């Protein structure tokens, strides 16, 4: 026992000298196994042996064929697959969102209020557009009158106004003269006529 | 870095770590699910398509996954169902009766560039392909992957007794084929 301890101590000293950092580390194993692993391992092993025995007796030809997979797969398949599937899933998700929106739009709970809002908005926009068209037409009409006047020579307009006013006055004077002549010819007193009227 | 299923789920539920957790989940389970699907579909390209569909389904439905069952069981169940559906669609498309798997998959086997087998292995694979789909899945899971009947029962939603009987029949059929050919 003492001899063993001496050997152990001398080995420790040797490790201290050769690898001082390593000798300071704990000698405990970092590897762990589930608590029930060793209990279940025995059962698993027993089951496996029983299966093999059963196959040997039931199917001796089959049990003589080595169990290896004849299937191969492209190089780096499992390294690349997670990235590939992540891309597919992300694309699918964005497509699904559009699909979900369409599905939601079809649902009556959502579709009726949305459609009503759209109809009201459409009718409103239509009404406003019609109103603005009427105003536009009026403005166009006004503008066209102004534009027409702008195009006519100013002197012609003044002449037309003056001639319009003068011809009216001349007519009134002519009428008055005719009335006076009638009253004189028929001996009608103007004052009596005014009184009767 | 491998996370436990519980930790993965917690991280997946957080929007900031969702993509990271999903990526870890893919890395943790891709190999097991790939080989499970590959043994059902044989062809690599078909397996790749189905594996993608499986993980897309996982992405979409993992929020609703209840920790009542194991994540591993749930993933295997999706992979199995997706593979069977894919196989049926393909057979239907090719106009092959659903129960005539053997010739259809044997063709897949020979045309697959990612398949290298010696004579005896080739014979074994062809023998396995003579089995009906579900029996073939049970045989592969038990014979090659050493999955326990209890776990298989959860994945395939079949009783342990039925699975044992199915495996027993499968072994007998494979043995008969090997003797006759």
What descriptive keywords fit this protein?
heterodimer; A: 197 residues; rod-shaped; B: Rna Polymerase Sigma Factor, Chain: A; Arc Repressor Mutant, subunit A; 9 helices; 76% helix
Task: Give an overview of the whole structure.
- The complex is a heterodimer of chains A (197) and B (181).
- Chain A has helices at 2-18, 20-24, 37-58, 60-63, 77-106, 108-151, 154-185, 190-196.
- Among the domains of chain A are: 113-151; 154-197.
- Chain A contains eight helices and no strands.
- The longest helix of chain A is centred in the middle third of the chain and has 44 residues, at 108-151.
- The relative contact order of chain A is 0.02.
- The model of chain A has no long low-confidence stretch (mean pLDDT 75).
- With 197 residues, chain A is mostly helical.
- Helices cover 82% and strands 0% of the residues of chain A.
- Chain A is rod-shaped.
- Chain B is mainly α and 181 residues long.
- Chain B has two domains: 1-96, Rna Polymerase Sigma Factor, Chain: A, CATH 1.10.1740.10; 116-181, Orthogonal Bundle (Arc Repressor Mutant, subunit A).
- Chain B is 76% helix and 0% strand.
- In chain B, helix 1 (5-13) crosses helix 2 (18-41) and helix 3 packs across helix 4 (71-93).
- The longest helix of chain B is centred in the first third of the chain and has 24 residues, at 18-41.
- Chain B is globular, with a radius of gyration of 18 Å.
- Chain B starts with a helix and ends with a helix.
- The mean pLDDT of chain B is 90.
- The chains are: A mainly alpha (197), B mainly alpha (181).
- Chain A binds chain B through residues 47-48, 51, 55, 58-62, 65, 67-74, 78, 81-82, 84-86, 88-89, 92-93, 96, and chain B through 19, 22-23, 26-27, 30-31, 34-35, 38-39, 42, 44, 51-52, 55-56, 59-60, 112, 114-118, 120-122, 124-125, 142-144, 146, 148, 168, 171-172, 174-175, 178-179.
Order of helices and strands of chain A: HHHHHHHH
State the helix count of chain B.
Answer: 9
Task: Please give the share of residues in helix of chain B.
Answer: over 70%
Largest sheet of chain B: none
Structural class of chain B: mainly alpha
> How many E strands of chain A?
0
